[in-house]
Amino acid sequence: MDPATASRSWIAVASAEHVRRGRAEGFMQVCHGKAVPLRRIRPGDRVAYYSPTERFQGKDRLQSFTAVGIVRDGAPYPFDMGGGFVPFRRDVRWLDGRETPIQPLLDRLDFSAGVRNWGYPFRFGLFTVTDRDLGTIAAAMGVVLC
Q1: Which intervals hold domain EVE (predicted)?
Q2: Mean pLDDT in the chain?
């Protein structure tokens, strides 16, 4: 397979309430609706959402993976949410699975095993991970990747 066209695996970051809305409506948003990060993602790429909190800007700690899906065909597109907020979205086919805490997985994930500050990459809102990591996350969530 040509590396330029091979699918990649990603972790996106958003509050659980935002992820649940995206799952219900079949889309994803990242980095407060910015288009540029979404342009790095291609159709067929796999994405897992990590939710540090239940609510946007909440103080509650959830620290769980809350969704896994496969990016659908099409480019990022603007969506008018009213009030002057027009974030960019990508369509995703979300797979059935249960929300799963990250803590039990930290020693098994390539990006966090043996890393003291495992939360650092999450600050970017979107980052690539190994296919192995995405598979480990999906399995823990009870998701069958297809």
Answers
A1: 10-139
A2: 93
